[in-house]
Please model this.
Amino acid sequence: MRQQRTTAAPAPARATRAPIERLTTGYPLVIDGQMKTEFETKDRAIKAGRDLKERFPMLQVKVYDAEEKRSEEIEPAAAPASGQGEKV
Model:
């Protein structure tokens, strides 16, 4: 008699994820939708976000306020006006 060959189906790969903890304090930077470094003060977080945005303007950088559950978009610092117009 002929035996049927069966192939064992591979076990599905397990997706390992980091545990999700709700932030209640602090100001983490959110880079392209991913929470990164957390700061104790909003001023430090904004400064770090601006520095990062200046170096990599293509990134989406936000500061998340865990207490208020709001995020603030970081815009690149405006270039100072050079005062150089057309020469006459």
